[in-house]
Amino acid sequence: MEAHELVDVAFSVNGSSVSVSVPPRMHLADALREQLGLTGTHLGCEHGVCGMCTILVDGDAARACLLFAVQCEGAEIVTVEGLGSPERQHPLQEAFSHHHGLQCGFCTPGMLMSSYDLLANAPDHAGDDELPEQMSGVLCRCTGYRGILAAVSDVHGTHPDGVPGPRNCATRTLVGRGSGPASSQAPSGDVPADEVRAAAPAEVRIPTGAPSATVLVTSELRSPIAAVWEVVSDVSRLVACLPGAELTETLPGDRYRGRAGVALGPVKLSFEGLAQILDRDADAHRIRLVGQGRDTGGSATQADIRLHAEPGPDGGTVLRAEADLFLSGRIAQFGRALAGDVSRRLFEQFASAVDESARTGAVPDVRVAAPSPVRIAAGAVADAVRRRVRALRARLRRR
Ligand code: FES
Ligand code: FES
What is the pLDDT of residue 370? Predict the structure, then answer.
C-alpha cells in the first residue's frame, strides 16, 4: 500500500456509526477534527506529551494523536462533544465552570476527558492526595490547575463510586470535511466545488441529537395570509426569498438542490445542498423542510425548519420560523450565539422578502432587494459584541 492511498475505517463516535476514508498515516485526532468536524479534540504537541487530545476509546482514556485512525476499526470513541450538551452538561463540565477551571480553555477538553476516565474507571485514586499526580497527564499552559483540581475533587465528592456516563452520545449525522456516514472524500485541503456538487448526498437525512443552535423568529407581515401562503408553498418563490440562496434543480419526492452563500467577516462560505419538504399542510398553513449542505472549505450544516403562518392584526400575517441548526467543520467554530444571530437575521430578511413577494406577486431578487449576506453577518457580529459589552457593564455594576 502507498502512503497516499486511502483506507476505509468504520467506528462509532459519540454514539453514531461513521465511516471515513483516511491515509494510513493519519492520526485519529486529525480524522476526528478534519473529517468529522469534531474540533473539540485539541492538538498541542502531537507527541503524546501534553494530553490535549485525550479522548475515550472503548471506555478508556487514550491520546488521539498517538493512534492511527486505521487502528480504530470497530472502536467506540467518545470525544468531549459526547460528554454533555449545552442544555445538559455533564457534572464535570458544570463543576469546571463553577470552580473557574477554564482560563483560555485550550486544555479543557483533555482535562475533562482525562478526569472523566479517572472518576469513571479509578475513583479510588481520585482522593485529594493522589489527584494532582493523576491529573498530571494533561498540561495546562495557563497553569490554571487549582480550579481544575477543585472541580474534579468536587465531582468525586458528589459521585464517589463513579461519575454518570457521557450525556450527549446519540445517533446523529456527523458531517465534516469531505466525509459523512455514507461517504468518504479527500483527507485534507479544500475540495473543489465540482467535487462537492458531485458528492452532494442524494437523500436528506433528518438530523437527530442536540442541535448546535435553535432559532425562533416571529415576523409580522402586512400581506394577507392567503398571499403569504402562496409564496411559502411555491418552492421557487420560497427559495428566491432567502438571501444568497439559489434553486438549481428540482428532483422527484419534493426534493430540491440548491446553493447558498453567507459571509462571516473574511470567511465566505458557499454551500451546495439538498432540501426536502417533509410536510405541507395548506389548511394549517404549516410547512416543514429539512436541508443539508456543505461547502468547499469543510463546513457542513443541516437544518430542520418549520414555517407557520397565522392571520395577524389588521389583515396581515404572523409568520413564525423555527429552525434547529446542526453545524460542523469551520462554521461550528463561530459558536452557537453567532450562528443563531446570523440565522435569525437571514430569517428576518426572508420574512420581509416574502412580504414583498406576496404584495407584488413578483419573485423577489433578494440580491438586490435585501442586504447582502456580508451585511447580515456584520450585523450579527455587532449584535454579539453589543451583548458582550452589556454583560460586562452589568458585571461591573454588580461589583
Ligand atoms: S496532542 Fe496528543 S498528547 Fe499532545
Ligand atoms: S486553561 Fe489555558 S491551557 Fe489550560
Answer: 39
